[in-house]
């Protein structure tokens, strides 16, 4: 039973990874400015969560409609980890080996967007200057930064996965 649940998670994760990698490649190739748009990032986040939920629901159906908390969480976790790991590897390859200049251009656009947002919300100039100096010193696309982002994303999505598993779990009344 657990092997079937894991297989569902792996299959969903590979599909998710392919979709996320395609989005990353298209954004890189067609419109790099989209990488800084909040609605693109929100859409990707929602897509990842949906794939995790679908993996948990499919797993519950695969085991006959009743699933433990743990068995509902496992396919969610496997799905999101595989999906975002594939996407992270693609991003590392693109922005560190194929076209590091694209990473710099996107980083500059992020800084511009951040400055505009801070000004819009009336942040003091000193705070804006400090934020810009801090952002100028970091490379969000370095291998280390992307791996750190992957780890933080996994932690955050795991919390969501725990909530999803609590909702999806269903105890067999025959076992009670």
UniProtKB/TrEMBL annotation:
Pfam families: DUF4199. This is DUF4199 domain-containing protein. The chain crosses the membrane at residues 12-32, 38-55, 76-98, 149-168. It comes from the Bacteria. Keywords: Membrane, Transmembrane, Transmembrane helix.
